[in-house]
Design a protein that fits this description.
The structure is a homodimer of 206-residue chains. Chain A is of the alpha+beta class and 206 residues long. Chain A has five helices and 13 strands. Helix content of chain A is 17%, strand content 41%. Chain A starts with a strand and ends in a 7-residue tail after the last strand.
Chain lengths: 206, 206
């Protein structure tokens, strides 16, 4: 094989930022989502995350990995306090503003204001949505699983309110992320647009 | 807001395939990965999954959601028996073969043979890699967390062998998925190529 190879010892010896960048990329393309939360004392919070994962559709469950001690900590605290949060898709129209929510703003600063995105309240839900986002949903916290191996948290939520802009879902339930302008993410900082190659039929043994 | 809205009751009332398709899409773009495992009795197994998530880079930990009672069950059994598995990126050259691994083949059939992908053994690792894949890694099982809410399993593994084709990683640890031809997935069956919009700088308060 021509290329690079590394085992555990080699990976552990890499310079920290090099390792963070590369290991954050090896899982493949990731979703770019803004997590919206609020807190009675400190107001609204918005944070970009790329660790959302589908868990099941009946009931509709979504997983989210939150890191300790990072800018994610306000998000985690607010989810624990209110039991709810929103997930909002990021598009090519506002990916730079979405990325900027990763900066370490003081607790009292709303990232909506700081980066220039509009907070939207829907269905009396106790967490803010992103007005600019064409696909967004509100979740009720179901379970928080501590991952003791590295101090992260696996948050499981049920989708209780789902909003999708006109024309993005067909009669079969296919959601057209490309038409919605939704971006994909790689590593920590690379944003991509996409182009559909093909929709394949349900796989059966030939 | 112009568009579609649904709450919990509406989602629960959707026709099953419609709900599965839509809820599988709402998390955003997903990685397309082939999971390679082996078993002394039944041989090698290969299964496409889109639920790989980054957990941390030091140590390099990767999460994987495996569903119960599906074609994933051979993968889960083999991971439990051997304590190891591989994750292999899917490219535009073989996405259709990768998708075909989702068919319900008998246990004794190797999906490598059934779909026409080449099994590759590297570093005496006890699970098969996909020869055609430009980015692939072997993992040691660290922890299996049962998700009792819906009977899925969250598998946590540490990357112990990493292989990346020549020219895909720069001096900063940035992995070029686009140059590798890696595809992104949406829902259950839509495959996408990508195009980089921009790599953004580390976000700091302005």
């Amino acid at each position: 094989m021509v290329g690079q190879w590394a085992n555990s010892e080699a990976i552990a010896g890499w310079e920290q930022r090099y390792r963070a960048s590369l290991i954050n990329s090896i899982s493949g393309y990731k979703p770019a989502n803004l997590i919206g939360t609020s807190d009675e004392c400190s107001g609204e919070n918005l944070a970009i995350m790329s660790s959302v994962v589908h868990l099941g559709s009946a009931p509709p469950l979504i997983g989210l990995v939150i890191r300790p001690g990072s800018v994610d900590r306000h998000t985690l605290r607010n989810i624990r306090r209110t039991g709810c949060y929103t997930i909002n898709h990021v598009t090519h129209d506002f990916y730079a503003a979405a990325h900027q929510t990763a900066a370490r703003y003081p607790d009292a600063v709303s990232e909506f204001d700081a980066v220039g995105l509009k907070s939207e309240r829907l269905a009396d839900f106790d967490a803010p949505f992103v007005a600019e986002s064409p696909i967004k949903f509100g979740l009720k916290l179901c379970e928080e699983i501590p991952i003791t191996l590295n101090g992260t948290h696996f948050i499981i939520g049920e989708v209780v309110h789902l909003y999708i802009n006109e024309g993005l879902v067909n009669a079969f339930g296919d959601l057209d992320l490309q038409a919605g302008g939704v971006v994909a993410l790689s590593g920590l900082d690379r944003y991509y647009i996409t182009e559909l190659i093909e929709q394949l039929p349900y796989a059966k043994p030939k």
